[in-house]
Design a protein that fits this description.
single chain; Fumarase C, Chain B, domain 1; Ribonucleotide Reductase Protein R1, domain 1; two-stranded antiparallel sheet; two-stranded parallel ribbon; binds arginine
């Protein structure tokens, strides 16, 4: 965009003798970052012009002229010919100044009964709702990629972990789907946040409402909002919807960061469970052998910044006195940065998952029989031993196997029976990983049949959303 080249009057020049100091202008101006709201500002202004027409504030001709002028301003933004003027402190000022240049003094009627306080709250909501829809499209695409991979691996065995130590065998699909369900909560949260965003504050004026006959509900509807705010004083300073989005994004990032960490660890040469496609790794400038998981590290790293935006903005809000305060302009940069981060990172993550290859042999090789110790305890439970005792009897066997440096299945029957006479020759049937998994067919469990049910539920979740 071309640089400012002329100076212009401020919106409040009538009451002022002197222009603002240059340092104040630089501090106050939000146009450098809020100009991205131009399409929302203009769409909402077009609806507002129509509401003023219905309220008999604007004539037919005035309404047409204002709407055509606004469309021209929008075209200038779209084709990059809009030239900001020195007095354009924010997007509202810039659009109105240019509108009046284009259509004359009648353009000045657009702001009748409206304040930038209800205008910015409206624009930001309008922009955020559309942005959330774009993020949701990306997020469900990521879920789709996870689901497609999971479908191929319902019978692939891998160690399940607690404390990053092998615990019990699970299927690789089960591991992948655990992230699908985390993301499904993020999707729901974002959908609810979008709903809460689409409450129109327009018609609240600066704080007290408007004396003009504005049909607020019809106006909200024309802008694509679902409802209107109940209190004008609350409406102009309510940024809960921004907090809601920052929170939803921070929690989403927390989930993505955990996934990134898993993939980083599981794709190291030492684990070797996963293979990252070359296109989604980066090399080292020094060490020719390296393929680094930068995408995943950036997901993990950016999570810190996005959580910071949430806590930072909370602190902006906490001490504000009633009504609008300029502090509220501080919502834009965290909001835009969070949105940009998600819209940049999700496509790279989708590609990473879509090209991720599992290495079933390496996963299988990482299983060891001590991970079936619980199953051996269950074997004793089936023979009437209380679980707590069974736990101790298996513990003794695990210790014996460790001392002798052999697997549980290589421990002779005499050793087992020396620990407890309840152990019998059929105990060795426990030592089969696939059987152990198949037994865990409780709802939400890792058995292939339970996982196939999860997959059907996951499909339903995505198809409800057209993904
Ligand atoms: N740029 C301002 C913001 O983002 C618009 C509202 C300005 N209102 C005011 N009374 N100065 O919050």
């Amino acid at each position: 965009m071309p640089q400012p080249e002329q100076s212009a009057r401020t919106l409040w020049a009538g009451r002022y003798e002197a222009a603002a100091a240059e340092s104040v202008r630089r501090l106050n101006d939000s146009l450098p970052f809020d100009q991205r709201l131009y399409a929302s500002d203009i769409a909402c202004s077009i609806a507002y012009a129509q509401a003023l027409h219905t309220a008999n504030v604007l004539t037919d001709d005035e309404t047409d002229s204002i709407i055509n002028g606004l469309l021209q301003v929008r075209a200038e933004f779209e084709n990059g010919t809009f030239v900001p003027a020195l007095g354009d402190e924010d997007i509202h000022t810039a659009v109105e100044r240019r509108l009046i240049e284009l259509i004359g003094a009648v353009g000045g009627k657009l702001h009748t009964g409206r304040s930038r306080n209800d205008q910015i709250a409206t624009d930001t909501r309008h922009w955020q709702a559309a942005m959330i829809s774009r993020v949701l499209t990306l997020l469900t695409a990521l879920q789709r990629a996870l689901l497609e991979l999971a479908k191929q691996h319902t019978e692939t065995l891998m160690p399940g972990y607690t404390h990053l130590r092998t615990a019990q065998p699970i299927s690789a699909a089960h591991w992948l789907l655990s992230y699908f369900w985390m993301l499904s909560r993020d999707v729901r949260r974002l959908e609810l946040t979008r709903e809460a965003t689409l409450i129109s504050p327009l018609g609240s004026g600066a704080l007290a409402g408007t004396p003009y006959d504005i049909d607020r509900l019809a106006l909200a509807d024309a802008m694509g909002f679902v409802d209107i705010s109940a209190n004008s004083l609350d409406a102009v300073s309510d940024r809960d919807f921004v907090v809601g989005f920052l929170y939803a994004a921070a929690l989403l990032m927390t989930h993505l960061s955990r996934f990134a960490e898993d993939v980083i660890v599981f794709s190291t040469p030492q684990f070797g469970y996963l293979h990252l496609d070359e296109r989604y790794t980066t090399g080292s400038s020094l060490m020719p052998q390296k393929q680094n998981p930068d995408v995943l590290e950036l997901v993990r790293g950016k999570t810190g910044r996005l959580v910071g935006h949430l806590t930072g903005f909370f602190n902006t809000l906490k001490g504000l006195p009633t009504g609008y305060n300029k502090d509220l302009q501080e919502d834009k940069e965290p909001l835009f940065d969070t949105a940009d981060t998600l819209e940049t990172l999700l496509p790279a993550l989708i590609g990473t998952v879509a090209t991720l290859r599992l290495k079933p042999d390496r996963m299988r090789a990482a299983l060891d029989e001590s991970m079936l110790a619980t199953d051996l305890a269950d074997y004793l439970v089936q023979r009437g031993v209380p679980f707590r005792e069974a736990h101790a009897l298996v513990g003794a066997a695990v210790r014996a196997a460790q001392t002798q440096g052999v697997a549980l299945s290589a421990l002779p029957l005499e050793t087992y029976q020396a620990i407890s006479p309840i152990y019998a020759a059929d105990l060795y049937s426990v030592f089969d990983f696939a059987t152990a998994i198949a037994k865990r067919r409780s709802f939400g469990g890792t058995a292939p049949e339970a996982v196939r049910l999860q997959i059907r539920q996951a499909e339903a979740f995505l198809s409800e959303r057209g993904a």
